[in-house]
Amino acid sequence: MHPYLISIGSFHLPTYGTMLAIAVLAGIYTAIRLGRRVGVDSALILDYSSWVILVALIGAKVLLIITLWSYYRAHPEEIFSYATLKLGGVFYGGFLAALFFTIWYVRVRKISFWKMTDVLVPSVALGTAITRLGCFSAGCDYGKPTTAPWGVIFSNALAHEATGVPLGVRLHPTQLYESATTLAIFAVLLWWSPRKKHDGDVFLGYLGLYAAGRFLLEYLRGDENRGFVFHHLLSTSQFIALLVLAGISGVFIWRRVHGSEKASALSEGSSTEFSQVAGANAGQRKNSRGNHKAKRKMQNSKPV
Predict the structure, then answer these.
(1) Rounded to an integer, what distance in angstroms lies between the CA atom of residue 205 and that of residue 78?
(2) Is residue 141, in this structure, part of any structural domain at all?
């Protein structure tokens, strides 16, 4: 495709880097707009974003190095090389690093984790949709060979050199598949956000939708160097997606159990209060009837 958006002499503007910058700006803008609706301060989101972006980039690189450890163990000098710096990294590495940072950040700032993440995850979905367009332009995260009419053929030698994408072969445009998937998730989250019943619903919904979509899309990926587990049975991202789905199921079960216990406690409390009120009313009616009878007896009695 077009790994460089602009090339003037020795100056080259990478398409991936440009799309990443656009994704960051679009994500921050979206988070600020959504935050205002629920009372999250814009300055807080800007401060958080300036840190979490750096943390996510480092996390993505770290998981990339872990998944390709057999190569980096043999070539440790490449860990801090420019070639590694140019690589995009692994999404889940950046996401998990950002998640742990968020847990720490909200504790320090004393704000609700669920409320904060509900504001942020639509921006993550939108940012992923934009960034994957940069991946498509650079040739990374390419798909398996296909005979489908919408398959794409890469012909840029620079893309092949940087990402290893096969040239002259019709491939699944998995980058566009994921871009469309995350854009659809973004639309669902925007619709869901004002209709959620509990804080955290949007965050958990994003985790489930993305994990399911990513798990299926991994079967169409053709870049074999992205890392696998269990003797090539699952890719690293598929394994993490399964852990995420299991974690979400646990949270929903916990919420359901504790929600039922809370509802039961409220019901018992209401029943007790109702019984007390009913007993008090019955006592008042009994006293009233006793006073009325005493008054009638006094009126009917004759003086001696």
Answers:
(1) 38
(2) yes
